[in-house]
Structure formats: structure tokens, C-alpha cells
Design brief:
With 885 residues, the protein is α+β, with helices and mostly antiparallel strands. The protein is built from 28 helices and 29 strands. Helix 4 crosses helix 7 and helix 7 packs antiparallel against helix 10. Bound molecules: zinc ion.
């Protein structure tokens, strides 16, 4: 699964961070520990034959399932999962004997049903028959409906499923845990004019003569329940053949051409992974199915053979798709296709190893993206992903990558930045330690050994160490079993005979318990790569808190060269001064790593603010586009720091215009055919940020283009459409806001409509923000867009959005998918600096969230408290820097 992309979700800069973690796991886990389960282990399913008849208009469905299972010991009952399922008839049979009735009793809280046979059955193979009915939801959980208007303006409804983590139980009574792998036959009765899609190709379709058709899909390989998929609607399907595999993209009727980019990407990626894993893709086909609207929780899901992706990260629409969104289409596809092997063919045994699925797919996504698109310099994006993880990992509310999961709610909360981005960063570090070839050989062996099975994290480490990466296991354990961020201090550098000797020590980087972390830091085995700028790198392992390394050459010292390490680096002031002078000579990835480290060390009071600002000043005029983007973001952060200080905001805006205006002039305000993707991204970032700060030229150009829409409705079409409208939305008056709303109402596609309604929430004007909130509670935006509008308001007005969501809590919760309920309100609050917010969130959590679901609230609270404490210090130091300008 790909979690919601925070950058794409908001037009404003104070983006919502999805933070959701659960309590740190207790010490170490034994490899021999049994796989956890919420179900008794006395029965194992081997095959499901499911028949489902959806009634899309009534949002209900009828189901029948025949489950073949093995009873492992004599028993009168078995227990499986079911949620919101009405049991109509249950019976059980042994072999060819006649079925005898059984009784189902439901435990709604545990999401289970216990089947009582009325007598003790002996050990052996049985068949369970269940007739049942269930609900079709309107947020993306279980089986759900998404409504949209087709290009003629007609109202349409399509049906999809989303089962990860634990929602297959809303579709079929089942052993809904990843270790219960079985084969599946799915048969569905659908309207005769609609297409039906599932994991396997259609085996047979016959018209029932009553306006309905019966569609039977091929039998799946052995797989976990959470990977089952079904979709139906008025679809088009485009395909490409890759060896024996038919690769497809399934879109709403008429959208075929917009799916071509994703189809081409999928075709390349399947070939790449076939080779990388040295195991051919095992199903006959691989579709990627587009759904309109969105979820607050995820953007795409790796159902085996039938990936589901929301349109806004799958369709390439020349009217609206930006260069960055197109990169996102490729990356999301690369992520979900990586899961077809890593996750689907080999699956974590239980959700505490979710990171293995997600960290790995995130890492593989970057690797495959970089392979096919070297000009995107995707390795630079890894630095930002690592930064996001370290940001959360520096608070006491973090958790280890491998975490204890015991309830359904905890499973949903485990899909977080630590699982994805720290997981990716740790794998990046381990691959660098092992070397690319040994790492890949280990993976190939792992894939072959565990195909169609389940694993624990240590199975992967064992395979890679066996392939030749001696010492990998202990590093891997340190970074996955304990939380937190190592801090490597460069204590001294001695130049002797053309060589430099570094003394390193290891502490712990913390935002909220700096003294405690310094007094008694956790210990890691940290692989460190260092170099003298311009010379060859050398490596060492810092172990037990200290290490030494000798580097060829003398001069500016760079630690974590290449940025594959998951740790921060603290230099002495002299070393920082030398690095600042050498800054233009650093590789862009090291420039970015140094800028990020330096700023975070400032926020944590490990070094003066001046040190980070001097680095920003040291950026060369012709820096890499991503480095310039990072500096642009720093100005946006500083601007936001002076929320109620118009004079200093004006000064910062003037500085930003002076510094970045010429860069924008050079790039031009229009997209050129010859633009590189990085130039296109930088242009968009400059327009957004300068527009955010009210730059006169940018705001005037946004108005001019917006006015031009009156005579030419296509005046804004193209990759910068959302960027320009974002500037308009932020600076909108009532007339402009009304016109944006009208553009949303009359949008000719769901894709354009989605972007317009998010923009309505992005206004700086508080009256307009209130209007957006009120509009979000009406049916106008559509079931899945309203929560995004509220989120968009929170970007600029977090306190307003939270007050609104609390005042309308019951209504707002119906706009958010079940998996995200406990995260939504703390997510809105995340940009707040108001001390009163802490009490509001505490009261909310105590009244409405179970204790095990309060982690997102606790994390937001600690971030707000730290912000309130640190901002006065940061502001006072920035004041001096501004004064000197
Ligand atoms: Zn994933």
C-alpha cells in the first residue's frame, strides 16, 4: 500500500504530516516466537469459493462462500473473522456427506464469528458453507462505492474493494490474517453493461438475460486475504504484453489515453523486477485499476494482479498533470509492482513486520524509479524521506521499526512514516553496507526459499548475511528493534602526512529529551562512510559509542558521504566553517543532507541558528534544482515562523524575491517542451512559494491567467494549472473564491474536480476558510473529497480546522475512512502553535479514542509543545540574521 502523499495533498506549505504510531515494542523478540494471532489456531483454510452479488444502488450485497478447511484437532467450534456481516445460513460437511446446519454467533467488537457445529468434529478436512449479506461503504474500506460524473455529466457509481490491513472480513467471513494463505475462486453477478475485475483473468462470462451477467475468475495462487480484489463499473481496459504477462490499466470509460503513461511504466517495471528478483511474475495478468476520489489513508494498494490506485496518482491528464505528479505516477506504480513479489509472493507473517513489506517496497520504488529515470535524480528524494522519518523518530513518542501489534486499530496506525520512510532509509543503509550484488543475491535466495509463504524480518537478514554480508544482522537489529536517531559527533580531525584521522563518538539526537539522551544514549552499530571533500571515501563501524577512521587527504571533513546512513552528524564550528566554504564542491545529495542535518540540529538546539542560515547563504547561484527547492522551502518555513509579524514577513518575502526571482526569470513562467523534469518542478515550487509570500509579479501573473479563463476556458490548462490556481486560491477574495468553486462544479472530470475542491480550502482569508469548512459538510464536494478540503484549511488555519472538526465531530468522522479516524483530527492540529490546542486534543482523545488509539494525538501534542518551546529561541536568532541583512 502506498500511504497518502502528503506533498501532493496540500497546496499550502504547512502540510499535514500523517503521524500515527503506536507504543514502542518491548525488548527483543525471539525468532522462534510464534506468529501472533487473534484467532484460535485449531483450523486452517485451504480454499475459498466466493459468490457475490452487489446491489450498488442500495449499497448492499449478497454473498455465498464455500470454505475448505483443515480441522487440526477435534473441536465443536471454529472462529473466523467477520465484520458487519449478516449470517443467513451456515452448514458444514465432511467429504461427500450431506451438510449439517451449524450456528454462527458474532462478536462485533472482536470482528469475529464463532461457528458452533452442535457436536464435536474430529480432526480432518471439512467444507463450510455460509450464506450471508453485507454493506457497501462510501469510504475506501472493505467493499465500497465511488461516485463520479462521466464526461457527459451523467452520475455514475463504481464498486471497488480495499482489504489491507483487516477488511477482507467485510467482504467474506474468513481467516483474515496474513499467515492464513489459501486459494480463491471468485464469481460475481454484475450489471451486464459493466466490466468486472479481480486478481485473476476472467475464466467465463455469461449473460443471465435479466440485465445481469455472471463473471467467474480463474483460481488465484495461494495468498493472504488482504490481497483479494474485486471491482466493477463502466470501465475501459488498455493492455500490453510483457513475455507471458498481460499488463493492463483499467480506467473509467473514455479515460484510456490518460492511463497510457502508467501502462508503459508498468510494462517496463514488470520486466525489471522479473530480472531483479530472478523469479518471474507468477500470475497471468497484472492490472492497475483507477478509482475516482481519494482516501485520507492511502493512494494505492497492491492487490495481487489487480492493483488499485486513485485516479489522481494514476491518470496522466495533459489538462492538469504536473511534472511532479507524473513522477508520482511512476513511483507509485513501482511501489505497488514491487509488492507483487515482496509482500504478495512472500508475505510478512504478522503485522508487526509490516515494515518489511512497506520499507522494502518504498526502497525498491526509489531504486526502480532511479533506474528508468536517472534524470530525475530520485536518490535526492531519499534524503527528504529520511528527513521525514528522523523528524518523528527524535521524539519520545516514536516506535521501533519492528513493533508490537495486537489489535486491528493498531494495524491501521502502523502505516506511518517510521514504517515506510525509516524502513526505506534503513534498507538503503544496509544495501550500501552489503554492496548491491550481495544484497540482490540475498534477496533472490529469500524469494525462492519463501515463495507463497510467510516470513519474519530475520529471515531476510539471514538470507543477506548468508549471501556474504558479514555483520549485517547486528546492524539491522540495532536499527529495527530500537527506536531513535543516532547522533555521530566528529570530535576531532588531525591532518598527519596527507591523511586525516577522525575521532567519532555516538550519542542520540532528540527533540524532547535532549539531556536524558545525552546522559544515557542508546547504542547502535553505525556504518559510517566519510571523506575529505574531493578525496576518496572510507568506511568504518562506530560501535559501543566511539570510533576512529583515517581518510585520504586533508581539508573539509564530510561524514555520511553519499547520505546512505540513518543518523545525524554534528561537526565542530571550525569543521562547519570549512564545509561551508567547500559547499559548492559537494555532490548535490551531500549538500541536501548537510542542509537538512544542519537545520534539524538548529531546531533541536544542538547548534546556533546562524550555522544553518550561513549554509543557506552559501548555496551557489547555479545549484542543483532540488537543492534550490530545499532553500526555497526554508524561506517558506521562516516566513511561517513570523505569522503575526507583518514587517518581518515582508522583509523575508523581499529577500526571497531578490534571491529566487532571477531563478524564476531564467526558467520563465511557462512550461517549455524542452524543460527537464527538475526544471519544471523547480519552476512550480518557485511560483508556489513566491505566490505564498505575496510576490507582486507572481500574484499578478496568477490573476492575469485566472482572468483569462473568462474568455478562454483552456487558458490555464497544462502542468502548471494547479500551481497557478494555488496562488489564486491562497490570495483569493470572495469573487475569486466563487469562481474557483464554479470551476469545481463545472469540472469535466473527477480528476479536475478533486483538485478544485482542495484549493477551495487553501485561502489565507479566514472568512473564505470558514466558507470552505461549511461547504465540506454539504454533499457538493462528494463523499471522498470533503475530508481533503478540511485538511487543506488546516494547512493555513490549523486551529480553525480543529475547532470545526471537534464541533462537527460525528459528521466529520463519516467523511474519513475508518482506518484514519483516530489520526484525522490530530493531523489537522499538527501545524498549530497554540498552547490551548494541547488541552483540546487531550479532551478529545479522552472522550472519543480508546487508549490504544491515542498515539497520533500524543505525537501531535509533543510536537506542538516542542514548537512552542523552541520558536522564541529560533525567532530571536533569526531576527539577528535578518537585522544584519
Ligand atoms: Zn506499500
Amino acid at each position: 500500500m502506498k500511504i497518502r502523499s502528503i506533498l501532493a495533498a496540500s497546496a499550502a506549505f504547512l502540510v499535514l504530516t500523517p503521524i500515527s504510531q503506536i507504543q514502542a515494542a518491548p525488548a527483543k523478540q525471539s525468532a522462534a516466537q510464534l506468529v501472533p494471532s487473534q484467532l484460535p489456531r485449531n483450523a486452517v483454510p485451504t480454499h475459498y469459493a466466493i459468490t457475490v452479488t452487489p446491489d450498488a444502488a442500495k449499497l448492499r450485497y449478497d454473498g455465498k462462500v464455500r470454505i475448505e478447511f483443515q480441522l487440526k484437532s477435534a473441536s465443536k467450534t471454529i472462529t473466523l473473522n467477520a465484520a458487519d456481516i449478516e449470517f443467513r445460513a451456515v452448514s458444514v460437511a465432511k467429504g461427500r456427506a450431506a451438510a449439517t446446519p451449524a450456528n454462527a454467533s458474532v462478536n462485533a467488537a472482536a470482528q469475529t464469528a464463532t461457528i458452533d457445529f452442535g457436536r464435536t468434529l474430529t480432526e480432518g478436512r471439512y467444507t463450510l458453507f455460509i450464506d450471508y449479506a453485507g454493506k457497501i461503504l462510501q469510504q475506501a474500506n472493505g467493499i465500497f462505492a465511488l461516485d463520479y460524473k462521466d464526461p457527459t455529466g451523467a452520475e455514475k457509481r463504481a464498486i471497488f474493494t480495499q482489504f489491507e490491513a483487516p477488511d477482507a472480513r467485510r467482504f467474506v467471513p474468513s481467516w483474515d490474517e496474513p499467515s492464513y494463505k489459501a486459494t480463491f475462486d471468485l464469481k460475481v453477478n454484475v450489471p451486464a453493461d459493466q466490466m468486472a475485475v479481480s486478481n485473476m483473468p476472467v475464466a467465463a462470462r455469461r449473460d443471465l438475460g435479466n440485465g445481469m451477467a455472471e463473471v467467474r475468475f480463474g483460481t488465484t495462487p495461494k495468498m493472504s486475504t488482504y490481497l483479494l480484489f474485486f471491482g466493477m463499473g463502466e470501465f475501459d481496459r488498455i493492455t500490453k504484453q510483457v513475455g507471458p504477462t498481460e499488463v493492463g490499466v483499467v480506467v473509467g470509460k473514455g479515460n484510456g489515453p490518460k492511463g497510457q503513461y502508467a501502462l508503459d511504466a508498468s510494462a517496463k517495471l514488470v520486466g525489471y523486477y522479473n530480472e531483479y528478483f530472478d523469479t518471474p511474475y507468477p500470475l497471468p495478468k497484472l492490472d492497475n485499476v483507477a478509482g475516482p476520489g481519494q482516501s485520507q489513508f492511502f493512494s494505492a494498494m497492491e492487490n495481487w494482479g489487480a492493483i488499485f490506485t486513485f485516479e489522481r496518482v494514476l491518470l496522466n491528464d495533459p489538462k492538469i498533470t504536473s511534472a511532479r505528479t507524473r513522477q508520482g505516477i511512476f513511483a507509485t506504480d513501482a511501489h505497488e509492482i514491487a509488492h507483487q513479489w515482496f509482500g504478495n509472493l512472500v508475505t510478512m507473517a504478522w503485522w508487526d513486520d509490516l515494515w518489511l513489506n512497506e520499507g522494502f517496497a518504498s526502497w525498491m520504488e526509489s531504486k526502480a524509479t532511479a533506474h528508468f529515470n536517472p534524470e530525475w535524480q530520485s536518490n535526492l528524494d531519499r534524503v527528504n524521506g529520511r528527513e521525514g522519518a528522523m523528524g518523528l523518530d527524535a521524539y519520545v513518542t516514536t516506535h521501533p521499526v519492528i513493533q508490537k501489534i495486537s489489535t486491528v486499530e493498531q494495524t491501521s496506525q502502523a502505516f506511518d512514516t517510521i514504517t515506510y520512510q525509516k524502513g526505506e532509509a534503513v534498507i538503503t543503509m544496509l544495501e550500501a553496507f552489503a554492496g548491491e550484488d550481495i544484497w540482490r543475491n540475498g534477496l533472490r535466495a529469500y524469494m525462492k526459499k519463501h515463495a507463497y509463504g510467510n516470513t519474519r524480518t530475520d529471515d531476510l537478514w539471514t538470507a543477506v548475511e548468508a549471501a556474504g554480508a558479514k555483520g549485517l544482522v547486528k546492524i539491522a537489529h540495532d536499527f529495527t528493534r530500537q527506536p531513535g536517531v543516532p547522533l555521530i559527533s566528529v570530535d576531532s580531525a588531525q591532518c598527519v602526512n596527507g591523511m586525516t584521522q577522525l575521532a567519532l563518538s555516538q550519542s542520540e539526537f532528540s527533540r524532547d529529551r535532549k539531556t536524558a539522551a545525552a546522559t544515557k544514549p542508546q547504542r547502535w552499530n553505525v556504518p559510517v562512510i566519510a571523506q575529505i571533500v574531493g578525496n576518496a571515501p572510507a568506511t568504518t563501524i562506530v560501535s559501543g559509542g566511539a570510533g576512529n577512521i583515517t581518510l585520504p587527504g586533508c581539508g573539509a571533513v564530510l561524514v555520511n558521504a553519499g547520505q546512505s546512513g540513518y543518523y545525524r552528524v554534528l561537526y565542530t564550528p571550525d569543521m562547519m566553517a570549512a564545509l561551508k566554504d567547500a559547499f559548492p564542491k559537494l555532490a548535490p545529495i551531500d549538500q541536501l543532507g548537510l542542509l537538512n542535518d544542519s537545520q534539524s540540529l538548529v531546531y533541536g538546539a544542538y547548534q546556533p541558528v546562524r550555522t544553518a542560515l550561513e549554509l543557506v547563504d552559501a548555496e551557489p547561484a547555479a545549484a542543483n534544482q532540488r537543492v534550490t527547492e530545499d532553500n526555497v522551502a526554508t524561506f517558506a518555513y521562516l516566513y511561517g515562523l513570523y505569522d503575526k509579524d507583518a514587517a518581518r514577513q515582508a522583509k523575508l518575502a523581499a529577500m526571497a524575491t531578490q534571491r529566487f526571482g532571477p531563478v524564476l526569470d531564467r526558467l520563465g513562467m511557462k512550461q517549455n517542451v524542452s524543460d527537464s523534469t527538475l526544471d519544471a518542478n523547480l519552476r512550480s515550487a518557485l511560483i508556489s512559494t513566491l505566490g505564498y509570500m505575496g510576490d507582486a509579479n507572481v500574484v499578478a501573473e496568477a490573476s492575469r491567467l485566472f482572468n483569462a479563463l473568462d474568455t478562454d476556458p483552456e487558458a490555464l490548462d497544462g502542468p502548471l494549472r494547479t500551481t497557478w490556481l494555488g496562488v489564486v486560491a491562497r490570495n483569493a477574495d470572495q469573487a475569486a473564491w466563487n469562481k474557483l468553486r464554479m470551476l469545481g462544479q463545472s469540472a469535466e472530470s473527477q480528476l479536475v474536480k478533486s483538485s478544485m475542491y482542495r484549493l477551495l480550502g487553501a485561502s489565507r482569508d479566514i472568512a473564505l476558510a470558514n466558507q470552505a469548512l461549511a461547504l465540506a459538510l454539504t454533499p457538493e464536494p462528494g463523499a471522498t473529497l470533503s475530508a481533503a478540503m478540511i485538511g487543506s484549511v488546516a494547512g493555513e488555519h490549523p486551529d480553525l480546522a480543529v475547532d470545526f472538526a471537534l464541533a462537527n465531530r460525528a459528521a466529520v468522522e463519516t467523511l474519513v475512512d475508518v482506518s484514519s479516524t483516530s489520526e484525522f483530527i490530530p493531523g489537522l492540529a499538527n501545524g498549530s502553535s497554540d498552547p490551548a490546542m494541547v488541552a483540546k486534543l487531550t479532551t478529545y482523545a479522552e472522550a472519543h479514542l480508546k487508549p490504544e488509539s491515542r498515539k497520533p494525538v500524543e505525537q501531535t501534542i509533543v510536537a506542538i509543545q516542542t514548537r512552542i518551546t523552541s520558536q522564541p529561541r529560533i525567532r530571536s536568532e533569526v531576527n539577528s540574521w535578518l537585522h544584519a541583512k
